[in-house]
Amino acid sequence: MAISDEDVRHIGRLARLSLTEDQVEWLGHDLNSILDHIGTIQQLELSGVEPTAHALDVVNSTRDDVVRPGLDRDAALRNAPAEEGGAFVIPRIVGGGDDA
Amino acid sequence: MIDLSRITANQIRDAIAGGVFTAREMADAALSRIDALDGDVHAFNQVTPELAYEAAARVDAAVASGAQVPPLAGVPVAFKDNMNLIGTRTTCSSRILQDYESVYDCTAARRLLDAGALPVGKCNMDEFAFGSSTENSAFGPTRNPWGLDRVPGGSSGGSAAAVAAGMATIALGSDTGGSIRQPGSLTGTVALKPTYGRVSRYGCVAFASSLDQIGPFARSVADAALALEVIAGADPMDATSVKRPVEEYTAMLGEGISGLRVGLATDLLDSEGCSDEVRTAIRQAAETFAALGAEVGEVELPTAAHALSAYYIIGPAEASSNLARFDGIRYGHRAQGAKDVSELYMRSRTEGFGPESLRRIMLGTYALSVGYYDAYYGQAQRARTLIKRDFADAFTSYDVLLTPTSPTVAFAIGEKSDDLVAMYLSDVYTIPVNLAGNCAISVPAGLSAKEGLPIGLQIIGDHFAEATVLRAAAAFEAATGFDPVPPLVREERLGVYLACAKRARPGGGAR
């Protein structure tokens, strides 16, 4: 079940990556070579086996519902690529570009 | 003069408490050693003299005032560059975070510093911890102090190399599929991956949240035990950290291993990828355990053969979700000139991530995508159940299990970079432990005959059996008398080392 270039482009869009044709080519090659190896897992007969998402048998861990300090605004904005008036600046989302 | 390559954490603390030297002198010694060696080793992404001297001043003031001297007073420590520490950048060795300034502290790092340790720097790693050689760093590879043409392993290769070369006494790494133990094996250091949940993950940039765990590198089992004692324990900032008392690991080290039930994992040992010299060393290690009074038997872990496949589905699946946060909005690299927010996300991510990150994000996204989810992710999670059961079964008959840590000694820089699966197989013995959530340590088991490179023994314990694993490792360490200091960086040869390293430096100093 080889992955085609079109599959790679589709996965790239799902992962929010804008891949060049060169990247599509080498990623396709690499994904196929990895899947050749790990695809053997599909041959395991595992029906009826419960999946494990977490290694320990722990239940939900909650803290007391009390107010405590979080990250302050200056710290939260410290690494912002663009910032104005205490907020992150981003390109227009609606009403301007091709998506309008 | 302080011999930084041999002094232990306890010796440093006692010498500072007794006025033999000051924490400031310790900081001087560590920083000048980094200055002398790190141009060649490149263990560090950032060296932090200001933080080290500030911490040293606090320790020296405490000693002068007659206050109690904390357990890690004056001990030089280093952190993998995925751990946040205010006053440092946290880059994950990625272009996407190359200018990221930490705005809070990683709990495990904070606990070491609260115990009096001196932070000397942040260590190189495979980008976002994706790799087994530290060659996937955006800032150039780290070199192994046992041979500068060799990788130190990965992904915590910088932390391992810093400790092996005596530039830090203790370093923290993170281990998702072997990223503490495998570099520990390749650099002749003691390297511990605690049980999942034993140490808080707060402030460590997430790779695969159900597998990641922070742990220490040291040059002795006692120092690793001391470090674990300090960093372990519940943390309100990490809901997966376990509310279970922390044992006094150091106090239990000397209890011996008479009657300890030790299982040699023969099916893993006999697998074809394992080199003969590693296999021989691990069989000899089992004999050492028998000679020390342990009851040594043989055990099989049949589903461990599928662990690599399960890991290369679960790990990338979780990573692709965790790395969705890097979008160029709140922090990290932002692409210039994007006309809308969607283009901004896509271009920022594609420009910022290196090749192995792209590979893992793509693989994980594929494994989670409609039509493939059950065939890959669901199947991997069910295989994980069987792997967990294999370990649980083995621990009904044995207290600890023995395997190699890595199938080979340190390989050459560039040797496996073109063969992904060969690189991934480097973690074949460590990955099952993460999937099952157990604890395990890598402890040196001698040098290869041909090249004089370290071989690591992996000692695996049941969930929360760190005390047993450390006690077994301490007994083995005492019996083997391994010298953890690479010949190249022994004090008497430092000058020769520096001269040779400068002549032989492969590939130039890419930093």
Low-confidence stretches of chain A are none
Q: What is the first-to-last residue Cα distance of chain B?
A: 30 Å
In helices, the fraction of residues of chain A equals 25-40%
Lateral strand order in the biggest sheet of chain B: 1-3-2-4-6-5-10-11-9-7-8
- Largest pleated sheet of chain B: 11 strands, mixed
Globally, the shape of chain A reads flat
| Strand percent estimate of chain A | under 5%
What's the total helix number of chain B?
17
**Pairing-aware structural class of the strands and helices of chain A?**
mainly alpha
- What is the ordering of alpha helices and beta strands of chain B? HHEHEHEHEHEEHEHHEHHHHEHHEEHH
Count of DSSP H/I helices of chain A: 3
Number of strands of chain B: 11
Q: Give the oligomeric state of the chains in this entry, treating copies of one chain as homo and distinct chains as hetero.
A: heterodimer
Through-space gap between termini of chain A = 39 Å
Shape of chain B: globular
Our Rg estimate of chain B from Cα atoms comes to: 21 Å
Strand content of chain B: 5-15%
Radius of gyration of chain A: 23 Å
3D structure, described in words:
The complex is a heterodimer of chains A (100) and B (511). Chain A is mainly α and 100 residues long. Chain A contains three helices and two strands; from the N terminus they run H-H-H-E-E. Chain A has helices spanning 5-14, 21-38, 73-77; strands at 83-84, 87-88. The longest helix of chain A has 18 residues, at 21-38. Chain A is flat. An eleven-stranded mixed β-sheet of chain B has the order 1-3-2-4-6-5-10-11-9-7-8, sandwiched between helices. Chain B has helices at 9-17, 23-41, 49-65, 107-114, 157-164, 181-186, 221-231, 266-269, 276-291, 307-322, 341-352, 355-367, 373-397, 420-424, 431-436, 466-480, 494-504, and strands at residues 44-47, 76-80, 118-123, 170-175, 190-193, 213-218, 261-265, 295-299, 400-404, 439-447, 454-461. The radius of gyration of chain B is 21 Å and the shape is globular. In chain B, helix 7 runs antiparallel to helix 16 (466-480), helix 10 packs across helix 12 and helix 10 (307-322) crosses helix 13. Chains A and B meet through helix 1 and helix 2 of A and helix 10, helix 11, helix 12, helix 13 and helix 14 of B.
